[in-house]
């Protein structure tokens, strides 16, 4: 017997298929031990429902998608930067804001000054917002601590969140976010500290599965990035990179050379970098929220990515400075409106391709037998609606590994 069988639904499986969205109209889906055990047309069910599953759930014609995956966030941070936003709108430059202690330094300070318990409380609210909008798997980066105590504090908050909420959290150590002020005149020492002291502890305590480097003129050079990648790879971390966002440094190709899971941002990427991503099996994670919020005009080379069959993922990049957007459906809309994604491409980018960007493609990202029964039910007439509304859309029902979550449980 199957555990659960959902009926009276339509499925957007996102499997490779000639049908848009890999759709199955008038479908049914069943789970057993947290995995999808059967899906297809209701008329193809091998027996009458009551003989097939212990629990039959009659739905109301909703569309079911795989649980959404936000594969790039900085969800755990203290404070906010709304004053800075107002100053920027009045024409003040980022350099001037930075010089007065604003910018990323203010988030660094605010996060260091926020206790574990308080950070947990703030992050819990943000995480529940994401879950209500259909997210069942999320990546969370550190990077606002930048010393041992505070980087571990952020990563421990992420671990704790995963204990409290039934969501998959992939943690990434982004100690190479910026050089902290106390190391400004000795940046080589900071890189050395990351690889000699921080990463071994993070590995030993199993606090992150990947490391990330912000490879940019205002952050870390290509050479520094490679030093960190080399050691991280030896320690057994997966690799990620923030690359070619504001200028071209060659970080994406370097990441692909080291077979990074993903290279993220990529506005200034060139054709040879796209070829390198294709060769390295590295996913291109594009972040239209930061593009929008920073009023950027350089669009990532999306046609080249399509041409070379590089999987494209989209993510919120949720952070207080450059992408204060905690909604994947908003991000899907931005990708469609600003970059001409089709709604189907946008949905694939936050499911099947986002799973690959986290190395989880065997477990989640599409509705297929053997994958986790991570199911999101939407009261919509067509899956294109998911990219159509600019506001974050709430799902009707949220199921993780076959277990349904009652939203009244949420704060
Ligand atoms: Zn980021």
What is the assigned CATH homologous superfamily of the largest domain?
Answer: Metal-dependent hydrolases
Ligands bound here? zinc ion
- Mean pLDDT figure: 96
C-alpha Rg, in Å? 21 Å
Supply the number of structural domains: 2
Q: What's the arrangement of strands in the largest beta sheet?
A: 5-6-7-8-9-10-11-12
Distance between the termini: 35 Å
Number of helices, where a helix is a run of at least 4 consecutive DSSP H or I residues: 15
* Annotation, overall tally of beta strands: 15
CATH architecture of the largest domain: Alpha-Beta Barrel
Oligomer: single chain
Question: Remind me, CATH topology of the largest domain?
Answer: TIM Barrel
- Strand proportion, as a percent range, falls in 15-25%
Helices and strands, in order, run as: EEEEEHHHHEHEHEHEHEHEHHEHHHEHEE
Output the structural class.
alpha/beta
**Principal-axes shape call:** globular
CATH class of the largest domain: Alpha Beta
List low-pLDDT spans. Answer: none
Name the descriptors:
seven-stranded mixed beta sheet; TIM Barrel; eight-stranded parallel beta sheet; 411 residues; alpha/beta; single chain; Urease, subunit C, domain 1; binds zinc ion
Layout of SSEs?
Layout: E1 2-12, E2 23-32, E3 35-41, E4 53-66, E5 68-70, H1 82-89, H2 94-99, H3 104-112, H4 116-132, E6 135-141, H5 148-164, E7 168-176, H6 187-204, E8 210-215, H7 222-235, E9 238-243, H8 251-257, E10 262-265, H9 271-280, E11 283-286, H10 288-293, H11 302-307, E12 312-314, H12 328-339, H13 343-349, H14 352-357, E13 375-378, H15 385-388, E14 397-400, E15 403-405
Helix pairs in contact: 4-5, 6-7, 8-9, 12-13
